[in-house]
Queue: 2 jobs
Job 1
Amino acid sequence: MTLARSLPDTATEWWLYLGVLALYLLTRWFLAWHQARKEGVEHPVRAAFDDEEPGENAGPAAAMGAFRSYRQLLGFLAGGILIVLVATLTEGGLQLALMCALIPVVVTLLAYVDFRRARTHRRAHAHS
């Protein structure tokens, strides 16, 4: 028995990781769409997809997807570690319960923090 594993062993574990990624992307898109609707954009769906494009004022760090604050970086690290721990150290019903109850909350909060930081950065550059 070893505790170190390099990749998921079963298709279920792969689906768990893909589901986490899909939830994060959908949450980010939903937040951008909601913000575009709130601002009265004519095509909020298009604006939500364009939201992820790095703009001219974004600079090289934002174009590479860099974290804009330590809070954002630490949140992603802690969230990622929590997801990996739940997926690798639990099995059966406990894993299912944690993946359905705890992980969606963590992923949604991470997407919100990421969206909020990007929105703040865009507003700061729009006014300058």
Note: The mean pLDDT is 77.
Job 2
Amino acid sequence: MKLSDMFSSLARNAEDFEKRLSKWQEDMRDRGEDLAENMRNWRESAAERQEELNKQIQGYFDEASEEVKAQWSQAKTDWDKSVEDTRAKAEEMRKKAETMQAEETADWYEAYAANMVSYAQQVQEEASKAVAEASEARAKAEAAKTGQA
């Protein structure tokens, strides 16, 4: 899968998530228990989607030089730690939010969702730049191979 395909997939997943979120909010008004089950199922399938993405990423690394592998292995380790730290902090905050009144808890979850969407948009912007830079670098590498550099 090309980087542009991965970026398109990320955009489609974000769009799908927005649609699901809208549907979940509708459902929340209609069905509390059913909604919770739907959210659990989506979370479970998220792990499967992440696993598939990890396989695709590994394909890129399998073709890379040892120097590239070493640099990006460290970067991935750092990013994974950052994500885990963010999740742990969110869980800590979530526990505190659960002690609030229902309206405040709802406000907290909405603010958290808005922050996570904002964060995802920032990451998506960075991904967009990365795809453009990767395409440019690949074009330069191909031109160098053919002596057009």
Note: The mean pLDDT is 82.
